[in-house]
Design brief:
The chain is mostly beta strands. The chain contains no helices and 15 strands.
Length: about 190
Amino acid sequence: LRDSIDLQIAGDSVFCAGDSLVLEAIVSGGSGDYQFSWDGDTTIGQIFRSLPTGSSTISLRVMDSNGCQKSESVGTRIKPLPNPVLPSVLGVCPQDTTFLDPGSFADYLWSTGDTVPAIPALQSGRYEVLVTGDNGCSNKAVSDVSVFTAIPVNISGDTAICPGEDAFLDAGAYSQYQWSNGSDMRQQRVS
């Protein structure tokens, strides 16, 4: 009676999308000089490496030098990556407070060192965030931020007027206007 083969498949069969699957055949017993056949491929050896694109079942057949065989299989499952969303390019006016918010996740690590869900974009530059989902998988998002230079506004016109007189204030040549009284015209009549 020949010694039977004991076979186990070791390795993490549940992994994040984009990660490699690494499985190892743990074999004892039999007559040694094992041949390994992972999903029918006999050229792989004792360690199986793959970059799968979907969940599947990986089968292993081991044969010893006496021709005795043992088979095992393991189901694999790919966990989805979180999907953080930031604008790829963002322009910010200097007086505005604009926050970068990639969405709701378990953990955050910003290129600024912050670990909060959202950060203010106060300076021009590249902002990166690495988020981790509830399933332990991580992914990143990047935003290139440009903080615009403040536009100098010089209002011209009479600033001192007598009662009953009108004056016109001119904001200069720009594409848009917003006066404190709600007007969006270049010139304002004041009395």
